Queue: 2 jobs
Job 1
Amino acid sequence: MIPTGVSGAGLGLRRELIPALLDRVPPDIAFFEVAPENWMEMGGAAGRRFRHFTERHPFVAHGLSLSLGGPRPLDEPFLRRVRRFLDEHRIALYTEHLAYTTDDGQLYDLLPIPFTGDAVRHVARRIRLAQDILERRIAIENASFYVKAPIDEMDELTFVREVLREADCALHLDVNNVYVNSVNHGYDPRAFLHALPPERVVYLHMAGHYREAPDLLVDTHGADVIDPVWELLDLAFGLFGVHPTLLERDFNIPPLPVLEREVRRIADLQARHTGAPAHRAPAGGRRHAFS
């Protein structure tokens, strides 16, 4: 088990939300998540605002561009910068997508890895190297995908399980991605969750999506979480225990009180599974002035 340093329900730290969060961090928000790529080595007023939050609240780092499944060598200088960022801000948990983002350069999208034995070994080697450089165990996130590779040798579930085993890493379980993929590729999301190794799960994501067609959902992080995804989160807590769980909202971001309601729903569901009061952080103080 990875010592994550976080618990309860969290929210992504978006720049659009910072003015409201400087006035008050709602007590239901127990931690924040950031992409290191967006905050590393940031100075000036923005850097001081960021440190204001990391000095007062637990954080998780969720990467965007490591390209664990990509063909080019891992960017080791980038990983060393990430390690310095994690150490500087006392962030214990770093997660990345089980996907690739590079070819000859950054593709700025999360593209699916073919589900083959060679790909399992390729990705696992890269995860182990990343863990060595970062000097910490990482968690990989099951990714949404829309087209199956013609060379697939196994299904998504088998591929995820094999990567976890071969790399000896943890699982960042994105519940919405399970639902999206189950609709797009015609499998039972509950059976998918039942078949995951519970000892690997350390962190969860919840998000909304866009329905393009009855059999095509797009993972946008731009809408409210729907009831079937809430039901899967309930099942996940029952299967894997209660782990820190983040509400992702990266598009069509509503005012903070609207997001707070969904974060509270996560916290209340966690509390029902633990039998303890919902984990709620101390309320934030007055607005801090930055120059």
Job 2
Amino acid sequence: MKKFSFEINGGNYEVNVISNEGGFAQVEVNGTPYNVKINGIEGSVPVAAAPVAQPAPVAAPAPAPVAAPAQPAAPVGKGSKSIKAPLPGSVLKVNIEAGTSFKEGDVLCVMESMKMENNITAENSGTVTKVCAPAGTAVLQDEVLFEYE
């Protein structure tokens, strides 16, 4: 599987190419699967090596971010773990900062998605090493919100 990162209209998209055969590809964009027909463009990469061209959605595409999207998180360091967004939305409130300890069940932040507020709770205990999505940030599903140890 090949992984690519794209910036389109200010939004960052992680693309995994699952298969690529006969001018068609199966890709996953930020966790959403798509079937893609690859069109050759003169002077571009050969069709067999082209990662993605104009995706044809299998499922409804993710809504456009309301605020500026979060910057892609740096690779998680050794010994660090991450807490990811369970759904796309906007971070309304962050209840914890770097260096702060938390316990299982603590509400780490509040996200708004589809006009509903959702508490993001800790699944285990730890100490936050980095807040990757401060309040006001639009995030996509599986985007890193916090890094912790």
